[in-house]
Amino acid sequence: MLSGMSSPPGPQDATSPIRQRLEEWLAHLENGRGTSPHTRKAYRLDCEEWLRLLEGHEADPFRPGRSAIQAWFATLHHRGDAPATVSRKISAVRGFYRYLRKVGAIDQNPLEGIRGPRQEKHLPDFLPVDEMFALLDARRPGTALGIRDRAILELLYAGGFRVSELTGLRWKDLDLRDGQARVLGKGSKERIVPIGRPALAALQAWIDVRPSLLKGGKDPGALFLNARGGPLTPRSVARILESASREVGLLRRVHPHAFRHSFATHMLDGGADLRDIQELLGHSRLSTTQRYTHVTLRRLQEVYHSAHPRAAGDRDQGSDPGPGEGRHTDARKGGRS
Fold it and tell me: Looking at the annotation, which residues are catalytic?
């Protein structure tokens, strides 16, 4: 097994050839591909961990052997890293070596073709329409913060925003006259998101009272402010949703992304084209949006098996209609007619 799992990088690390290349790659991700700071931070940590492991194994970081890679996998396994975490680490290191090959630093990517562990696919967690409407009505405007919270809930559902996109909105990004917002999504990709009338009304009410939270201080420009007049954080939005969920008595924990999933699922149920939903959500690939079709299909199957007279006929074979019962009624109970 490789050693050095938790040892911090030494002072010579920053000037080593491999770490100079790592800095170049991270700069390329920022300037050339617009990768988010969060992603770059995760990639840095993953690659630094990999390089420390190679140092403990005394392996050439530019040409690590198969045994070093296998020892790395064994270390991750024994540590109990989740499949998603292992896949991310492999993706980060593989991307780093792909860059090294592109710039001519190596002849072959040692991790090319290596994939992470198989992951269980989870369907998006969404709210039924009635629960969503109950949440939207949970915050009764009475105070500036209550008006703000109502606008947040309405906007999350109206536009399918990621929570980082919502908190990154500036009030100047809104066009209330045309009912739309300019959003900066992943990879610094900009898109225009339409906003429905209820959300527009809630936003207008918030904008009217928004100056009251500035308290004479400098305006940070963010659309949504906290009680001290500073920009609202994603964690604060999550707490607002948790509080609203308790108010309406929901047993589930509602996270901000559930609003995005609900937006897409309800749009699809309403007949929206999948490519239109892809554009509204800012997905770069249609395959990412297609998972919502699985949600809809699963629900259709549940409705079918519970409502169709012959859908569940195999469960109680041989049961005959009792006195006074018609064949159609018996079939709904699971018998065969």
Answer: 162, 186, 257, 260, 283, 292
